[in-house]
Amino acid sequence: MSRVRADEEEYWHSSKFRAFTFDDEDDELSQLKESKQAVNSLRDIVDDDDDDLERVSWSGEPVGSISWSIKETASSSTSSLEGRDSSLQKGSSSYAAFPKQVSSYSLSSLFKGRNKLPSFQSLSDALSDTGVKNYAPELRRPKAEYKDYSNDWSPKDTVRRMQRGKVCSLERFRSLQDKLVLLDEAVAGHDGNVITAVLIFLKRTLRREILFRELEVRQVALCHLIHFLKETGEQKLLLDLLRFLDRTEEVALSQYREHLNIQDVEKRKEFLKGCVGLPFSAEDTSHIQDHYTLLERQIIIETNDRHLEKSGQSEIFRKYPRKASILNMPLVTTLFYSCFYHYTEAEGTFSSPTNLKKTFKIPDKQYVLTALAARAKLRAWDDVDALFTTKNWLGYTKKKAPIGFHRVVEILQRNNAPVQVLQEYVRLVEDVETRLSLATKYKCHDVVIETYKDLKDRIQLTAYKCKVERGSAEEEKINSILNNMQIRWKN
Amino acid sequence: MAAHLSSGRVNLTALREAGRRELREFLDKCAGSKAIVWDESLTGPFGLIAQYSLLKEHEVEKMFTLKPGRLPQADVKNIIFFVRPRLELMDIITDNVLREDRGRSPQRDFHILFVPRRSLLCEQWLKEQGVLGSFIHREQYSLDLIPFDGDLLSMEAESAFKECYLESDQTSLYHAAKGLMTLQALYGTIPQIFGKGECARHVANMMIRMKREFPGSQNSIFPVFDTLLLLDRNVDLLTPLATQLTYEGLIDEIYGIQNTYVKLPPEKFAPKKQGEGGKDLPTEPKKLQLNSAEELYAEIRDKNFNAVGSVLSKKAKIISAAFEERHHAKTVGEIKQFVSQLPHMQAARSSLANHTSIAELIKDITTSEDFFDNLTVEQEFMSGIDTDKVNTYIEDCIAQKHPLIKILRLVCLQSVCNSGLKQKVLDHYKREIIQTYGYEHILTLNNLEKAGLLKPQTGGRNNYPTIRKTLRLWMDDVNEQNPNDISYVYSGYAPLSVRLAQLLARPGWRSIEEVLKMLPGPHFEERQQLPTGLQKKRQHGENRVTLVFFLGGVTYAEIAALRFLSQMEDGGTEYVIATTKLINGTTWMKSLMEKLEPAPF
């Protein structure tokens, strides 16, 4: 199943499918080199400024472009700002206190300013007074003031005006019937902005059950309201709506999403615990349960390990201080961590790798990969060896890797395993071609020599002689094999 | 300045001009000196409409980026916020306004310019914070379709796909329809509208409705476009998931092109002047603008990357030869002629230098083992091999913790190429992903399922092979150097979306009714009546012009494929491309992911 590179190449050549190969590799590269050379040689002829074409400032922005100008004008203004600040400091009070005063002052001035403004000058003023009532309760429903210009428009005209960004009042749509016609008109116009505006109006003037009931048969409007509630963070109303619609899975996910906003791990854990019972799909339910269990574990491990690390009693923590806490890390990262710091622990402890493997039903492959990476990083070659050793019932040992030994070799190599360790696993790669290419790549001479010997390939073996050091044991070995009269070479 | 916009069949400078006019008008409404506070995501798109000089002519003296805290102390009469209508930006503006020194004199006036549309929701929000009354002008600037190049328009609405297909919020479709109305006002009514997909149907409906409701919009301009083709992104979810293999596509995949600009690692662009060797290597990324104004780039952008090297070397020879000419210039006249050509030659040389460097950077990546392995798997999936079982390469990538987006792209690609995965396979991938990258990614996986990118196979039926064969999505004999089919843009895979456009032009969709039914959403045709005087009498041999509008995003490779069709000798159709957003697989996936806290390590 798992193809290795050599196979892959063969596959491409033999199959009718064309990969994105650079057939004319050398040609291509030389062409690029050619144009590069030409370009460079031309520099000597005309040593002009490269950027003459288009004036470009230091940061690479073309001079005169908007983003360039922002930096330009902003930097000149910062200097003037600094000038101002210093004069301010010289002048009177401390600078730090300054903005505070400003904001408290401006709030009240705003409040006053609002009343002075002609009221309901805009559409949204007319639309809803939820904002106003926070500041000026007496402004609620001054119906008389709407009279001026908007009384006679039909729902259709109203929507059309709103689409053009014109001022409109919705208060005159008082009956449920009128409101629904208005909503339908807005939906027919497809302008989300207007639909949302009408929904805000309905949300404010209709009883919740009625609003929900009517939206249920108006899917487009419904989607807009859901989107609006998500945007504005009205989580409670959103959940009520979804529940009313029986969209239970969405309720569950939407609630689960909330955990991302909880920074405190204990609280997050408790929150996740509450999520476990929510109506997720069967598949997701087990994931959410695992998420909760994992965080619970991580909290326990974190507390213990932080303590261990601080006390300085544990050698592994002294040698390899932790770079970050394990809280909120993915499962595989956690497994890596536990293989790194808690490899030898008995299955009974929460932090032991075997316990994690069991609890979260981590597949063998995943487990072996992670454990291998962790132990290789610590250069614990005995552990690596043990990972792949199995005993049969007669007590014979055998090497087995659920991930294929070529993968083992790659991981070991990435962790700078010494050649002696590496070649042991290269030798175990079953496919001869792969074994040879890996052995050659990583200079496992013994494996190369033995493989050629097994293949009875005298030519290749002779050729390999130049790859090993002169006078080395490897060279001697090659010579002795080549001189062995008992081998029947195939060439 | 904007020469690249007039190079195509349709002169898009007019659209840019209209945008500039509207901007000037707004600026003049706020009399006196001004400072603009920018929503950073807007500076790029605005840069395509106007330079700073235009703003300066209208008394814009300072410009700042929008951020919380106190506004800088600029001595101006007006402070104007240029923002997208997003709630989180309203919070920042509120903070700015509340911290403004009310005691200062003269007081500064506040204004908001919403782009592209005023939002009642945002105004409501400002009102709840108690600052709405502080703004004198609250206006909108309908920057719907921004001209990117002579044949390319984008709305740059990055969340359009998510809003349309995940949240069923059609606001961006409304903006698309508005943009199309503006386009028709400038370039005439488009007589034929074709479409495929739910969103396409909505946009067409809105256009027809808008036309009916504003009879004044009936214009007397001779139509430039013959046909409009509206395509839903979810009709073709496959294409953006695959790695683009054109030059421009790869630049975007690897470095990301934003508003025609790309930022590149500076090392390869170090000035190699004599005597300066080694010191002062630039540390800031090199920023380059990429559009058809640059002759060389226009020539190579849409080529398969494997065909770029030979063009560059050919150019190098030509330029070298041109510079050699100076030795032959003997008379004063000849020398004068040579000198007069120098600026152009220098521009060509500098352009060649840049693209040689970029090509080298890309080559380092495309020749890497991992790029090869990834592409191998993609191509297997697209050609229909082993799409129904767990893929070992994907498993390996997860085990090695490759970037999650890469994993998601591959898994989604497999799902799309198999009309959904077997439940067992899907569950396996999901488990591996959340165990390795974190349980919270359940949310992202859920979004992908909702968008149809990742799903269980229903009814055990896989339609993809039929679609692939009928639309000839996989071509075995692809010619990368001298292509004869659009499949060259993915070295074998012909983008489904572009195939639909191609088949529409010839022989027409009737020939593929069966396949159209397998793809999501309705397909339709509408006609818009033209006054008799404006009906076109086609000259013999004159090409038709089709505007293809991708609702939910388009990739550079798809654009390249359409340009290829435009240039086909007997093609008969030229294409102009519009979209809600220029995307690639990575930016697209990102837009669908739940925003998560970054991990501490």
UniProtKB/TrEMBL annotation, chain A:
Keyword hit for Translocase: no
**Top-level taxonomic group:** Eukaryota
InterPro entries recorded for this chain? Spe-39, Vps16_C_sf
Q: Any keyword Protease?
A: no
Indicate where this protein resides in the cell: Cytoplasmic vesicle; Early endosome; Late endosome
The record's annotation in Gene3D superfamilies points to: Vps16, C-terminal region
- Major localization listed first in the record, in broad terms: cytoplasm
Name any Gene Ontology BP term. intracellular protein transport
List cellular component terms (GO): early endosome; late endosome
Assigned keywords, A-Z: Cytoplasmic vesicle, Endosome
What protein name does the entry list?
A: Spermatogenesis-defective protein 39 homolog
Q: Which organism is it from?
A: Melopsittacus undulatus
TrEMBL record, chain B:
- Which residue stretches, if any, does this entry annotate as coiled coil? none
Q: How does it sit in the membrane?
A: Peripheral membrane protein
Q: Name one GO biological process term.
A: protein transport
Q: Does the keyword Protein transport apply?
A: yes
Against InterPro entries, the record matches this protein to: Sec-1-like_dom1, Sec-1-like_dom3a, Sec1-like, Sec1-like_dom2, Sec1-like_sf, VPS33_dom3b
Q: Which residues cross the membrane?
A: none
User: Where in the cell?
Assistant: Cytoplasmic vesicle, Autophagosome; Cytoplasmic vesicle, Clathrin-coated vesicle; Early endosome; Late endosome membrane
Domain of life, per lineage? Eukaryota
Alphabetically sorted, this entry's keywords are: Cytoplasmic vesicle, Endosome, Lysosome, Membrane, Protein transport, Transport
Q: What does UniProt give as GO cellular component? A: autophagosome; clathrin-coated vesicle; early endosome; late endosome membrane; lysosomal membrane
Cited function: Plays a role in vesicle-mediated protein trafficking to lysosomal compartments including the endocytic membrane transport and autophagic pathways. Believed to act as a core component of the putative HOPS and CORVET endosomal tethering complexes which are proposed to be involved in the Rab5-to-Rab7 endosome conversion probably implicating MON1A/B, and via binding SNAREs and SNARE complexes to mediate tethering and docking events during SNARE-mediated membrane fusion.
Record-stated family: Belongs to the STXBP/unc-18/SEC1 family.
Supply the name of the protein: Vacuolar protein sorting-associated protein 33A
Traced from the root, the source organism's taxonomic lineage reads: Eukaryota, Metazoa, Chordata, Craniata, Vertebrata
